[in-house]
């Protein structure tokens, strides 16, 4: 192993997509036995850079060297062969294949030209164990796993390739703290084993914990490389966004008005996933859903939004029981619900369609008269939303897929705000979004609440729950185990109740019934 | 059901020589061992979803229900297997295994049935093919003279176009022997005439819609024509001529009721027609032949069906065509020499009463 | 869940097809005038095996999330070719078989190349190549005819030890020698992966192009095996357009009945084989129920509609409506 | 910001290179055809082609709607035949029947489409197989009907007038009907919520559903419309041929699919313009017509037909490169 000198180096890399400049004379240099964090706003070019590194995308210009030798990767397979493994931001798992199939996919063990299933199973189990997820059954189909488990499988898959360089592009964005810490242990061990790691994340605390070296990107170019810890968070963030930066979270109102609840549930149960959930949501408040990932938070949001069948218990809107059996009913007048879904690419957006089409999709009933779209009304509504959320798009008729992830997410939110919903359900809306955009979203949520909306907000990021929410319901195994109010919302309390262990700090509050 | 000997090859004439006419002078005659009735007879049809076939199946049922025929039958079963040849072969195999005495078949393919013919022979089952017949000497064929039909139309054109000319030939379905035989017959006669004929060929698929479309195209690009011959879909061909304001010219065609209506209506304007063919009622001749064979009567291996020919100026309403009946109806359902005489109305009436 | 539950779930489609086939076949033979005899089974087997080959060919393309609307035409083309070549001495016959299979594989490879390298949608690409293959078949056999090595044909459509239909044995051999190695090979897995998620497969560095090309090529090869058997069964070659189309459409029905997902990535040729046998049994049921001939096509259509609607029963188990959308 | 772009007329902004190339191919075909015979450029021939294309055009309109959803409709053959046969049959029932013949035929097609729609949207069966099955059922019903009731099968005067009459001398009515159907379709796709929903569902049904769109109803309506348009095509074809027959729809299934795709509509759904379908329909019609009158064996026609479609698609119908 070359000591001192970089193991992998890229220089002068440029990449254009049509008119869009994704990278301009960018570079990165990573060394063995270290974790290199890459930071930058949405659309800064991070993913593009590592896609070039992993052979997924061909650079227009620039050189790459591996161990001092110039290299060029014609395909992901070529990069794999050179010892570069990548956990992509958009997962690269095959949904219809089993976990074991996926883990060994790029180089399965064979006997007589056929895949050796026993050996494959063994390899998969090893890799899963290394990634700290021995509980995932190797024969389970990937499509049946929740997103967080998929990310772990993706990591196990990269590990199974025994790479020299491991790249993780927002690989922990859907993971909860517990999973993240497992993954971190693995990464640290790999670093100790002499691998070079490239780590992309929008979570500053993760980077503080892991990184040895950091590189910041902005607008497709490198802004700075520095040793971890040599800059303050504020400085880093200012480098990323290129402007001054203040506290992330807006101030919470000191006292909530005790209005009648807009949304109330009584003993809501579904299959074996939700158990007797009762809570209420008032206008003007932001209520968080906490807990480990996969404890029923998503199911709860879907249940409220009319997606789940066979729901037991009662949902009340403005005090009267109501039955909601589809999103169409959930959004109708008198209910006024909106759901910002979990995965914007498959549930929130039609990527090839224009920004205009996407924005008006949830409000077609209001923008049409007798089924015919009122173009003027549509255009003004769309422009209003673009301004309100400061969506950066060349043109309202540009395909939404050409926006950066953060702007795409804003489109998803804007599409629902156009209806002026009274109840907003958010399913982890800031996943994989840069700090600048996150901050805008927090502000927006608070503004909505102040304007009278009731907000139910699920996040896998505890800091967000602490920063944004007036109350937090902590779910465990499909039931509300604890309700934290105001100052009780601390990281410690959140973690303790998420793990369903008695809290160290006793509370005066009764847990929600 | 096994244990029957092969048919005895005997010399003619056949039992009802008028009806069971031999195909040619060297056609063999069969005498099957006599078997006691009543018989179980099956009809293995292929495709069903067109008027000809539906009419054929209806005629078969009607014939089998006639009192004198019904008395001889213990069971008459019809199965349609679609366009797929192996399915039809399997159907025949199944009929053999189920002990039917005779199987009447409208074959999807003339050459594909050799193995099953072998099996039928071994099992002593009488196999009679009609319409699309079988390429074999081991089964009885009730045969339409396809090439003769082509020759008839060729002759008609030669007769009406004494100086030769430009002829539109609307053919049938490519790759079928019926199409090839009729085509050959037409060209043989045109060539033999020694006159100068220029022939424009299009494929009409025996379908009015397709024939109409390709005729319209041909008229627009290669017309006008001095004569037309069509193997089927003739109503559509005339319709296309009318639409394109193409002059009426001599026409050699099939026996669709719609075509004959046009012929009758426009003869004076130049649509001089020869309409010939054999209607779906030939199934009745096939059943009759099967029964005769089972009864031990002498039958030719290859029966030549008379063509039902009507030529200008002999089109008579109510006999050669039926003004109030469907265009798709095939006329020419009587074989007087066989005592088979279904009028259009009879077949239609039969089916209506059925409901 | 433990191992066998996962395995069961993996093969649920194929097992359902087996069950549907068995039930239908029992109804059929129980009502057949001749009962369950070796003849009846042989007849059913010979007919079923043809569609089974075509369905297996279709499956290979469908798992890559493609569809092959030319498969029936490859079946016809190879049938016409075999009616010229698979005759004469054992040596000539062998040579003929090799050429026929090679031509089938070539047709499949052409489809694959157009779809993969030409980047055309399989459905239209194969509509067009289907026309080409049919044209070639028609060139070879302007009208039905030709011949085949009858000894070989009788052996392969006959019975082994007087009981077992030889065609079934041949089908099983093809499954074992072609399908199983393919589906367990790296390329087979790449074909599955490409069908399930092409981007993910690409990013995982799988040989998707070669995997898909192999799938298309083997599909052509298996369709050619079907064409060969058609020749053995009928002793002739016949370029019948309607029949080629019918096989293409039937193969899609068989594949679906066999639990193969038309969206790709899921299912097996074994399921499709039983789907084909079940589909064929629908036609056979006409014999045992004394239906008016005019009602037969409707009866067949309704049974098909009912059979595919069985799959919809799973819908009632879906508790999360999002699962409706793939 | 180029908001001004949004003001450009839709057809200019959305002009797809595929559509332009398709129209280019049409010209090329005509020029090539004219080497064979001058009459390929004659107004009579061109009008005749436009007339024949109209039937395919109307049927392909329904097919396009379904393809935009990412589905397919294989029940076209017998939906066409059913529409035609039922319309003619209705005419047997006195003046009322004659008057209602056309709507009745279309209604029967809508019925077939509804079965498809329920199967696809509510039972979640892949469209390729439901429509195959309903096609078989429709065929079965028509066989029973023909055999059992010997229905009247000649077209009514109104049907004949629609197909072959000419309100404006020289231009067949059916061309206007296609233009009308096309205009309605363009309006529907571009200017209505229904159209937006169709594109949305075609791109991602899950996202459309979560946006509160009643996706199942839209899918069902689209299939019903496809069935109805097929049947309407059948009614007009019956008018053209003066009669209905069972096999009249067979020749329209694959050409309808090919026309839609040649027109640049993605078979995966969510992308495509009606103008493209118009180009595709004309292309297919011309190609078939030119091939049918050239004196070459059927085998040659089939091969050329296939090769030309492949070449045209390679010219402009390719998916983007993956990297
Ligand atoms: N395939 C593509 N086509 C067009 N433009 C692209 C493409 N990929 C990237 N871009 C452009 O390149 C720029 C950089 O994108 P990249 O994905 O590298 O950003 P990123 O730093 O990963 O952002 P994020 O933090 O959101 O993941 C973006 O502004 C985007 O517009
Ligand atoms: N196929 C494409 N065509 C056009 N632009 C693309 C394409 N793929 C990616 N991009 C651009 O690349 C940029 C980032 O792309 P990428 O897919 O990496 O986003 P992302 O990483 O998901 O964003 P985020 O980090 O916010 O989640 C976006 O601005 C997007 O516009
Ligand atoms: Mg990125
Ligand atoms: Mg990103």
Topology:
The complex is a heterotetramer of chains A (513), B (355), C (326) and D (323).
Chain A: E1 8-17, E2 20-30, E3 34-40, H1 46-53, E4 61-66, E5 69-71, H2 76-81, E6 84-87, H3 99-103, E7 110-111, E8 114-115, H4 117-130, H5 147-160, E9 165-169, H6 177-192, E10 196-200, H7 204-210, E11 213-218, E12 221-227, H8 233-241, E13 261-270, E14 274-282, E15 286-290, H9 297-304, E16 311-317, E17 320-322, H10 327-330, E18 337-340, H11 344-348, H12 355-360, H13 364-367, E19 368-369, E20 372-373, H14 375-388, H15 405-417, E21 423-427, H16 435-450, E22 454-458, H17 462-468, E23 471-476, E24 479-485, H18 491-498
Parallel strand pairs in A: 3-10, 3-11, 6-9, 9-10, 15-22, 15-23, 18-21, 21-22
Antiparallel strand pairs in A: 1-2, 1-4, 4-5, 7-8, 11-12, 13-14, 13-16, 16-17, 19-20, 23-24
Chain B: E1 8-10, E2 29-31, E3 39-45, H1 51-65, H2 67-70, E4 73-80, H3 85-97, E5 102-105, H4 114-123, E6 126-130, E7 140-143, H5 146-160, E8 165-171, H6 177-192, E9 197-203, H7 208-222, E10 227-230, H8 234-243, E11 251-253, H9 257-266, E12 273-277, H10 282-294, E13 298-300, E14 302-304, E15 308-311, E16 334-335, E17 340-341, H11 344-354
Parallel strand pairs in B: 3-4, 3-5, 5-6, 6-7, 7-14, 8-9, 8-10, 10-11, 11-12
Antiparallel strand pairs in B: 1-2, 2-13, 12-15, 16-17
Helix pairs in contact in B: 1-10, 1-11, 3-4, 5-6, 7-8, 8-9
Chain C: H1 3-10, H2 12-31, H3 38-62, H4 71-85, H5 90-116, H6 122-140, H7 150-157, E1 159-160, E2 164-165, H8 166-184, H9 186-196, H10 198-203, H11 208-234, H12 241-257, H13 269-288, H14 296-310
Antiparallel strand pairs in C: 1-2
Helix pairs in contact in C: 2-13, 3-8, 3-11, 3-12, 3-13, 4-5, 4-6, 4-11, 4-12, 5-6, 5-11, 7-11, 8-9, 8-11, 9-11, 12-13, 13-14
The structure holds adenosine-5'-triphosphate (2 copies) and magnesium ion (2 copies).
Residues 17, 42-43, 47, 89, 401-406, 432-433 of chain A line the site of one adenosine-5'-triphosphate.
Which labels suit this protein?
heterotetramer, B: 355 residues, alpha/beta, six-stranded parallel beta sheet, six-stranded mixed beta sheet, 11 helices, 37% helix, elongated, disordered C terminus, D: 323 residues, mainly alpha, 14 helices, disordered N terminus, binds adenosine-5'-triphosphate, binds magnesium ion
Query: Could you give the distance between the termini of chain A?
Result: 59 Å
Q: Return Rg of chain B in Å.
A: 21 Å
Total helical segments of chain B: 11
Instruction: Return Rg of chain A in Å.
Output: 24 Å
Protein architecture, described:
The complex is a heterotetramer of chains A (513), B (355), C (326) and D (323). Chain A has 513 residues and is of the alpha/beta class. Chain A has three domains: 236 residues, P-loop containing nucleotide triphosphate hydrolases (Rossmann fold, 3-Layer(aba) Sandwich), CATH 3.40.50; 153 residues, P-loop containing nucleotide triphosphate hydrolases (Rossmann fold); 78 residues, no CATH class. Classes of the chains: A alpha/beta (513), B alpha/beta (355), C mainly alpha (326), D mainly alpha (323). Chains in contact: A-C, A-D, B-C, B-D, C-D. Bound molecules: adenosine-5'-triphosphate (2 copies) and magnesium ion (MG) (2 copies).
